[in-house]
Amino acid sequence: MRERGKYYAVVADDHAIVRSGLRSALEQPGLIEPQGIEVLAESENGLEAIAQTRVHKPDLLLLDVQMPMAGGVEVIVEVQRWSPATKIVVLTGVTALGMISSLVESGVDGLFSKGDDNQELYTRLPGILRGQRHIADRFVTALKDKPEAGLLTGREKQILNMILGGHSNKEIAALLGISAKTVDKHRTSMMQKLDVHSVPQLMAYALREGLVDPASEL
């Protein structure tokens, strides 16, 4: 049974040492919350993050968006669908402005850089848990002069990332709980908007716009 006044979290990162460090910090009484934040589960890939959040419905999901099986905006969309009260806080090494812009637009409650000291994260988490939103200063500065994002909807961006991850329409449909026909309609609409006609052209667009990290595996 959960204690009244205490907060609960799921930590999702594909590196065990990162998960361990974050769990230790979250659960330490007084560092972030007087009673600490109890970690109910850890996830090492995107599908686990979605599943664990759906089961536990934690107050907080601390999320890395570059994980195997599912990552980026698609995880955020599914978490928002299954556990809308969960505060989503992204801790990322991503620097591409297109991806950062997509994360901000997705409605995450917090966005922090792995390149910064974690103290900013620890200082801001109490406010985020109580309804505030915080985007790290480095991201705010980087996005200040960036033109408005493209025409893709959140679902289209989600499907784009899954296509780039090598998933077929049938696999995407199964993962998202929609029909393959619906996936195909989103895919057709997306390609028309971007004026591309093949997956390689989609990949080139995504790399150019920073929607994927060129160093990551597709």
Mean pLDDT: 85
CATH topology of the largest domain: Rossmann fold
Superfamily (CATH H level) name of the largest domain: Response regulator
Distance between the termini: 41 Å
Please outline the major beta sheet. Answer: 6 strands, parallel
Number of strands: 6
Number of helices: 10
Radius of gyration equals: 17 Å
- Principal-axis shape equals globular
Beta strand %: 5-15%
Helix and strand sequence: EHEHEHEHEHEHHHHH
Walk me through what this model shows:
The chain folds into 2 domains: 7-143, Rossmann fold (3-Layer(aba) Sandwich); 154-209, Arc Repressor Mutant, subunit A (Orthogonal Bundle), CATH 1.10.10. The longest helix is centred in the last third of the chain and has 15 residues, at 180-194. Strands 2-1-3-4-5-6 form a 6-stranded parallel sheet, with helices on both faces. It has 218 residues and is of the alpha/beta class. The relative contact order is 0.11. 48% of the residues lie in helices and 13% in strands. It has helices at residues 16-27, 46-56, 73-82, 97-105, 119-129, 137-143, 154-164, 169-176, 180-194, 199-209, and strands at 7-12, 37-43, 60-63, 87-92, 110-113, 134-135. α8 (169-176) packs across α9. The radius of gyration is 17 Å and the shape is globular. It starts with 6 loop residues before the first strand and ends in a 9-residue tail after the last helix. It has 10 helices and 6 strands, in the order βαβαβαβαβαβααααα.
